[in-house]
């Protein structure tokens, strides 16, 4: 790069980085506040909370990075024009491609970042998030049972405790075990506490009784105890294989799926749409940068407003994203719509390039058409009244 191009690159890159960090941090905080339930109600540690919320950062980067690039490009071009630097560059004979080069370099860098995150990092973060949430929900005492409520589990166990005391101690416990047909066990205890021993979770009951009804009999036996231990694995639902959604699978798994998998047979369209949505994501930073440059790359005097150009660029970006979402949605139903997934950003790049490199001709053509319409009343003898 020449010195002037490095200067422009620093302005655009600084603005883009500031927008990326600011927007990502703001949205991450709002998302993190929604997960405070992990700490306040589900008894998880602060590290688990930070880890779960950090797993959303790759998704935020993929969404925000192209927008930050667009804002950075608009800011840089407005600053250059406001300081009359664009006018000086144009008067010195600097061609549009030289002015575009630093923005294109920045856009390519953002495209590589978005492509790497969406293809490699984001699927891994979704998969890890699913695993963490599964482990959190598997914490029976912290997440399933509620204070003062009778909780009925699918495996035939009813659990109740009066209140939660200091140190997580459960007070006033009632447990009814009816997993075996015709046989019932009832545990009553003053206190209970969950402990981990060699990676296994146990519930230690203190000062209580066990009422057991024998199978096919009305007779019951009562056992008093000072300390009784129950394996909490018996309370957990039976294990089942985790089925990862298309967005939670690696790109290689989407490209070469297991054709015999029942879930794939039912969701072929979602697999196809997710794959091509990932592969096309890297084109959007380029498209947004080209749109911004096409709208604001020409030098203008202070009397020539740029607000309409900015508004037009924003509308073009909104239309681009809507078209992209529509194409991805259509790709779930039709294989032919895959071409539109790539065609939407590439068409935006092509049209913006025409405006950038053929802008003077386009404007002269439009001015000529407008002049014809202005001259038509006089040509038809419809001169304005004096």
Textual characterization of the structure:
The protein has a six-stranded antiparallel beta sheet with strand order 1-2-3-4-5-6, with no helix packed on it. The chain has two domains: 3-137 and 244-375, no CATH class; 144-234, no CATH class. 25% of the residues are buried. With 386 residues, it is of the alpha+beta class. A hairpin with a 4-residue loop joins strand 1 (151-152) and strand 2 (157-164). The protein starts with a helix and ends in a 7-residue tail after the last helix. The protein contains 14 helices and six strands.
- Low-confidence segments, given as residue ranges, are 379-386
**Whole-Å distance between the termini?**
60 Å
Query: What's the total count of β strands?
Result: 6
The run of helices and strands is HHHHHHHEEEEEEHHHHHHH
**What structural class do the secondary elements suggest?**
alpha+beta
Biggest beta sheet attributes = 6 strands, antiparallel
Relative helix content: 55-70%
The radius of gyration is 32 Å
Large-scale geometry: elongated
Count of domain modules: 2
Q: Average the pLDDT over all residues and give the rounded result.
A: 81
Major β-sheet strand ordering:
1-2-3-4-5-6
Strand content: 15-25%
Number of helices: 14
Key features of this structure:
alpha+beta, 386 residues, disordered C terminus
Describe the protein's topology:
Blueprint: H1 3-34, H2 37-40, H3 46-54, H4 57-82, H5 85-91, H6 96-137, H7 140-143, E1 151-152, E2 157-164, E3 170-177, E4 184-197, E5 200-213, E6 220-231, H8 251-255, H9 262-266, H10 268-280, H11 283-296, H12 307-331, H13 338-357, H14 359-379
Antiparallel strand pairs: 1-2, 2-3, 3-4, 4-5, 5-6
Helix pairs in contact: 1-4, 1-6, 4-6, 4-11, 6-11, 10-12, 10-13, 11-12, 11-13, 12-13
């Amino acid at each position: 790069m020449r010195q002037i191009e490095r200067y422009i690159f620093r302005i655009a890159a600084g603005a883009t980085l500031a927008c990326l960090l600011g927007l990502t941090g703001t949205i991450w905080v709002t998302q993190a506040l929604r997960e405070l339930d992990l700490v306040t109600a589900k008894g998880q540690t602060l590290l688990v909370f930070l880890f779960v919320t950090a797993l959303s950062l790759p998704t935020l980067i993929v969404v925000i990075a192209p927008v930050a690039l667009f804002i950075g490009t608009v800011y840089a071009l407005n600053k250059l024009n406001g300081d009359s630097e664009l006018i000086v560059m144009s008067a010195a004979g600097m061609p549009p491609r030289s002015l575009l080069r630093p923005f294109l370099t920045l856009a390519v860098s953002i495209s590589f970042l978005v492509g790497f995150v969406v293809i490699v990092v984001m699927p891994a973060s979704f998969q890890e998030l699913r695993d963490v949430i599964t482990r959190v929900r598997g914490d029976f005492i912290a997440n399933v049972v509620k204070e003062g409520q009778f909780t009925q589990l699918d495996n035939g166990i009813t659990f109740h405790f009066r209140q939660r005391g200091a140190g997580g101690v459960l007070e006033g416990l009632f447990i009814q075990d009816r997993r075996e047909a015709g046989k019932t066990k009832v545990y009553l205890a003053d206190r209970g506490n969950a402990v981990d021993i060699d990676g296994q979770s146990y519930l230690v009951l203190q000062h209580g009784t066990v009422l057991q009804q024998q199978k096919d009999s009305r007779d019951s036996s009562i056992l008093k105890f000072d300390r009784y231990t129950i394996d909490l694995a018996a309370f957990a639902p039976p294990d089942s294989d985790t089925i990862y959604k298309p967005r939670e699978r690696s790109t290689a798994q989407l490209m070469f799926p297991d054709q015999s998998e029942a879930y794939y047979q039912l969701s072929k369209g979602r697999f196809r749409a997710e794959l091509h949505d990932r592969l096309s994501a890297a084109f959007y930073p380029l498209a947004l940068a080209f749109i911004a440059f096409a709208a604001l790359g020409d030098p203008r005097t202070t009397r020539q407003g740029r607000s309409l150009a900015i508004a037009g660029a924003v509308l073009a970006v909104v239309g681009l994203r809507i078209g992209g979402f529509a194409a991805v949605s259509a790709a779930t139903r039709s294989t032919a719509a895959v071409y539109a997934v790539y065609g939407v950003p590439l068409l935006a790049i092509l049209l913006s390039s025409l405006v950038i490199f053929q802008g003077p001709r386009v404007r002269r053509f439009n001015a000529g058409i407008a002049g014809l319409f202005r001259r038509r009343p006089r040509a038809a003898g419809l001169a304005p009244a004096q």
